[in-house]
Amino acid sequence: MSSIGNSLYGSTLGDIVNNVNDAFSGKTSGIDVNSIVSELMQVERQPETQMQQEQSTISSQLSALTAISTQLTTLYNSVNSLKDFNGAFSQKTTGSSDSAVVSASADQTAAAGTHSVTVTNLATTSSSYSGYIPSGTSLAGAEIDVKYGSDPNHPLKTDTIVIPSGDTTLQQAASYINSGSYGVTASVVSDSQGSRLVLLSKTSGAAGNLTVSSAAAAFTSSAGVDAQLSIDGVPFDSSTNTITGAIAGVTLSLGAAAPNTPVLISVQPDTSQATQAIQNFVDAYNAVIGSINAQFTVDPTTQNEGVLAGDSMLRPLQSDLLQMAATQVSGLGPYVNLQSLGIEMQDDGTLQIDSATLSAALSSDFSDMQNFFQSTSPAGWGQSAGTQMLQLTDPTLGPVAVDISGLNQTNQDLTNQISDFEDNMAVVQQQLTDQYSNLNALLQQYPLEMQEIASQLASLPGASGSGNNQG
Asked: Is 320 helix (H, G, I), strand (E, B) or coil?
């Protein structure tokens, strides 16, 4: 029994003795059974209190381990971003010498380089409009035939639109056309002379040219044209002003025609995304190392270390992370470890970026730096670190996962023990209640028996006042 338990036991025993003596001497009419049993049960429950305190410690340990587990997952994802062939080091950025004429975007498949683009004309969209529709008349029941393509004798597609007889206004006719799956959209344009039905092709360029005919109204059409441009001196025709495929991985967006003004489009590695990915890795790594370091730091108020300071898993985990950050690779150019990139380890195990060194590496040796993280043969730093992080974050076999599983099992065992202990305490409490209830009944009977004895003695022959006094 602990010193606290001994003290509680001594105090409880003293209270019970005083309670019984008071009842025995007649100061009270009996003992307080509920109070005595409650004090005795506090002593009996000492083992349960200790188990509950142990559960409280386990809860704090699980909370700290879960936080570290989450940080490890973030670190794992940041390492994957560095070594992913479609990740940050594979992203491209573009520039344009005149973005008002042509701008560009690029995906990770685009090759770095500069291209000359000259836009002769933009793609336009064909439209067709009817003559004025007299007031009070409509296109209700009319048939409108629409042919698509440059040659109306050999159209690419034909729509036959029959306006419902119930659509007695031009706006209703336009709404009907727009609700269908036709290759045009319709609108109504009105001015001082009347109203017209306007059809606009859904397909830009020559392929969407409209030829419209109807017995109800005459239509006038304007042709759409394809965009005309040259890319690195090669003529190119496009039905839209958004061009994909002309340059692998690059999308061109045409904004204006400038036949005599070549526009330079540059495609370069996106160093800003690479820089951010490295910063994300350093932040994630420092978060984990910081959490581990905190467990071994003495709190100035409590003079205690963290709840995981005694966990035998934590030091090896710390060592694994430090080893990962210090890993060296060879055969991949000038960069052999993180320090050579400007990512330096501090005395407490955290990392710090030398911005000047990192920026110089990204701008002058991007491909070597990318190779450092992404090479598979020989394995680059990213491949090595990714394998190690995969092991550390394994949801079943990872060290933190195993530790959490063990603590959860211990916590469940304690819960079962407390449950069994509670069942036993219910029996003990009933036994104590019965025992002290019986004692209370005896103590309450004692004064009556003493009075009866005194009365009997007083009635004996020869008893006198003086004799009584002497007795």
From this structure: helix
DSSP state of 192: T
User: Tokens 């055969």 label which residue?
Assistant: 331
DSSP-assigned letter for residue 213 = E
**Tens digit of each residue's pLDDT (9 = 90 or more) over 299-320:** 888 888 889 999 999 999 999 9
Paired sense of beta strands 143-148 and 210-214, if any: antiparallel
b/e burial code for range 391-424 (CB count within 10 A of at least 16 → b): ebbeeeebbbbebbeebeeebeebeeebeebeee
With DSSP H G I counted as helix, E B as strand and the rest as coil, what are the percentages for the chain, rounded to 5?
50, 20, 30
Contacts of 114 (CB under 8 A, 6+ apart): 264, 265, 266, 267
Indicate the SS3 state at residue 306: coil
Question: What are the pLDDT digits (tens) for 171-218?
Answer: 999 999 999 999 999 999 998 888 999 999 999 999 999 999 999 999
**DSSP conformation letters of 249-302:** TEEEEE----TT--EEEEEEE-HHHHHHHHHHHHHHHHHHHHHHHHHTSPPTTT
Q: pTM score, two decimals?
A: 0.71
Contact 263, 100 (CB under 8 A): no
Neighbours of 256 (CB within 10 A): 13
Closest CA to 128 of 159, 156, 165, 154: 159
CB crowding 241-254: b at 16 or more within 10 Å, else e: bebeebbeebbbeb
Which H or E run contains 200?
strand 194-204
Query: Residue ranges of the alpha helices (H) in 375-462?
Result: 381-392, 399-458
Question: Of 186, 123, 183, whose CA–CA distance to 156 is shortest?
Answer: 183
Residue 212 backbone phi and psi in degrees, to 5: -115, 135
Two tokens, residue 328: 């060296």
